[in-house]
Amino acid sequence: MNNQGHQASSDEMQDILKKYDPEARTRSLTGIVGWIVFLGLLSFSLFQLYTAIFGIFTAQIQRSIHLGFALALIFLLFPAVKSHLNEKKGRFQVAWYDATLAVVGIVVGSYWPIMIQDLVLRVGRLTPVDIIVGLLAILLVLEATRRAVGLPITIIALVFLLYAYFGPYMPGFFAHRGLSVEQIIQSMFFTTEGILGTPLGVSSTFIFLFLLFGAFLVKTGVGQYFNDLAVSIAGKLTGGPAKVAIFSSALQGTISGSSVANVVTSGSFTIPMMKKLGYRKEFAGGVEAAASTGGQLMPPIMGAAAFLMVEFIGGISYWDIAKAAAIPALLYFTGIWIMTHFEAKRIGLRGLTDEEMPDRKEVLKKIYLLLPIVAVIVLLMSGMSVTKAALWSIVVTVLASAVRKETRIGIKDAIHALVDGARTALAVAAATAAAGIIVGVVTKTGLGLKLANGLVDLSGGLLIPTLFFTMIAAIILGMGSPTTANYVITSTIAAPAIILLGVPDLSAHLFVFYFGIVADITPPVALAAFAAAGVSGGEPIRTGVQSAKLAIAAFIIPYIFVLSPELLMIDTDLLGITWVLITSVTGMIAIGTSMVGYWGRKMNAFERVLAFFTGLMLIYPEGITDTVGLIIFAALVVSQYFFKRENVKAA
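Structure tokens predicted for TRAP transporter permease:
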């Protein structure tokens, strides 16, 4: 493929990642410490594979070993201060206090496996040693989270711990009797409702395996293949490179658990193409940020949040969640696609030329690289357990890679995939452990119900105002948090408010999940948009505003599927689903043209407002609104075509 303009180099990509994504701020270790970390990461993956194949240990042992690996490796890989990232500490390259913290992390992770009989027999009665170890576990989790994930979730977890202690001094309905230091430690580390709770449990089983699956896929070169496939399909269309970004980012999102990483990976390829074609810097960055963020909403993996959702909701299968999320995700990407199309029409942009396109025959020869993704969907649909589906998908990846020499995964590649998968899992483990602290405090103090009642009272018991306040809460809580922690926090704190008003659990959880995710593109803390601006050279806040505008569907659709669960394929049949798809996609066309201000010609203010509300009527799955919406939509199409022809005749 010919050069599409300046593409970000590997070093530039790493610099942007380290600036906006705390997960990427790791030391480059060599020598003996480098080997220690390498072997530690490899051992981490081998432990997880062993338990996945032969059966997991009891909850406390499985989760504490997982935590011990993560804590030790985080303190060796992630410096205490970002400015120390490239600083060498003598021949060992790691400060003495980091090495000490790593050792303490191993001790904390080993405590439950070694002492489990005594801990079970004592039934919650803590010894002085237990209290010291439990306190160290809390402090280490907070510091590891600060280093590997960032300050926002660390501050939230710390605030919740303080809330647990200072309960009697809290105002109004926030007040509670308070917990002593010993009670907090006991709840946080010596039960399965704190650090060793469900979030870390899912991290130590399902999530880790899917991160390994993603690492093996990367070794086959599937990321570049996504780009080539997207160019082959969409490159020659009007405004082709922007559509390539949407298509590629949706595919990347199936294996990526980070909006920022998705932006930098696919954006280094797509953003220069968009700029070369004529898109503004901010628009190019906005398209990539919106599309990459949408990757977290895309089944089958949904940034690993789908697996957490199964555990949190209970009584629901993984397939139910993936099925429910399908139409909203389709509408999200349809909205971005439509807006980029009409923006390209408005400013007269072309698609790629034949010379700029890849060789389609060569692209199709590698179509087998999609087999692992097809396999994971089929296996999960068949009812296979998530753990086994992930394991078999890794096997399919290795087998599929063997079709051609350039994609083949050898022993060395497999070892590096195991190491890379474990490295990716470190931040997830820290984030889910910190999220466990938040869940533990909510459970112990009843804060979830207090907040729910407070939000409902604030909104006068009305559903729409409650949804609005919950949306604001989810966006604020989701700022700067990775997908998994983001979902845990928003589902624990924000979702109970709308469930209290009778909204089905699945609708409520997807509602807060959507708004927690779009925090990545909502200014002022829009990490995905800022990363895209770093690649495009655009102004960060304007890029954030542009990405939020392009992702308008994410601000509308959650309200619709709460009010009408048919959009989630709940209590409907094939005919109903087909009708919902047709009217919803038509509605997104109307909203997209309204946001851009162009259809067959430039639209005036009245036409834009009319198109927007027509789109809302069509997306809301109800007979009367669909009928009225289709009539107005048809009138708008005729109006656009008629006045366009009249203008041509007049000219």
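Confidence is low (pLDDT under 50) at residues 1-5, 646-651.
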